[in-house]
Write a structure and sequence with these properties.
By secondary structure, the chain is α/β, with parallel strands linked by helices. It contains ten helices and 15 strands. The strands form four sheets. It has a seven-stranded parallel beta sheet, with helices on both faces. The chain has a three-stranded antiparallel beta sheet with strand order 1-3-2. Strands 10-11-13 form a three-stranded antiparallel beta sheet.
Length: about 260
């Protein structure tokens, strides 16, 4: 296969999958990993992709790129629902305090959890969130004890951020935090594009006794601008497809429990 043919094939894979791996490309093309890296370097210079650890992503998928929560809700919707159901079934009926992070998968969890929580069984339950859409939805259930963390609302995610939100979270000690993430990787841990969003997530992780991360397979091996937690901060990862390779090894080393939806 000539270099131009490999370049065309790489661009087609990026268009369909959004990400390519050096090891996978070398195996599929029957060339060395050094050859693939030269191909990726050439394509990056041409503006066709962006190099990341172990491979490349489409040029539009930068570490600070982010879409609005209203748009993200329609992406990987089936996978997010399965993940939400898996987590909700595990936590329903346990009682205690649960902090629900902002995000589309965590919002799906909030809906599924509410469906599985009987109106007469909430004496020991306390829910907390800094996400306006989640608070709006759960607030319709008068029998669900709910605390909304205040702060400046960030438009893209409709989540409270800023020093007031971080300070309020730091005064809590929830039994469980259900967290969303934009990316999860072996080298960088959990990350998100916005520093203020990351600060609140970091405070939630520090405050909670148990951390459950909800992340569909599209978040795997992704790295964004700001790291807010390491893999060793995570107790459970709920996903639709178990990670493989370097991330799988790192999760095992960090003793992260895996729940597959």
């Amino acid at each position: 296969m000539y270099a131009t043919e490999r370049h065309d094939a790489i661009e087609r894979r990026l268009l369909s999958a959004g990400r390519v791996s050096v090891v996978d490309l070398a195996r599929d093309f029957g060339v060395t990993t050094e050859t693939v890296r030269r191909d990726l370097d050439a394509l990056e210079r041409a503006g066709a992709l962006r190099r990341v650890h172990g491979g490349a992503v489409a040029a539009s998928r930068g570490g600070t790129s982010e879409t609005a929560v209203s748009v993200r809700g329609a992406v990987h919707g089936e996978e997010k629902t399965r993940i939400a159901v898996r987590a909700a079934e595990a936590l329903a009926g346990l009682g205690g305090s649960i902090f629900i992070d902002a995000g589309t998968t965590t919002a799906a969890f909030a809906r599924e959890f509410a469906l599985r929580t009987p109106a007469d069984g909430n004496a020991r339950l306390e829910l907390v969130t800094h996400a306006v859409p989640i608070a709006f939805e759960l607030g319709a259930r008068a029998d669900l004890p709910l605390t909304l963390i205040g702060g400046r609302v960030r438009g893209l995610t409709a989540a409270a951020v800023g020093s007031a939100a971080v300070e309020a979270v730091s005064q809590l000690r929830p039994d469980v935090a259900v967290i969303g993430t934009n990316g999860i990787s072996a080298a960088f841990g959990l990350s998100t594009p916005d520093p203020e969003e990351a600060a609140v997530k970091r405070a939630i992780v520090a405050a909670a006794r148990r951390i459950i991360v909800l992340a569909d397979a599209s978040k795997v091996d992704e790295e964004y601008l700001v790291r807010f937690a390491g893999l060793d901060d995570v107790d459970v990862l709920v996903t639709d497809a178990p990670p493989s390779g370097e991330l799988a090894d790192a999760l095992r080393s960090a003793d992260v429990e895996m729940w597959t939806a």
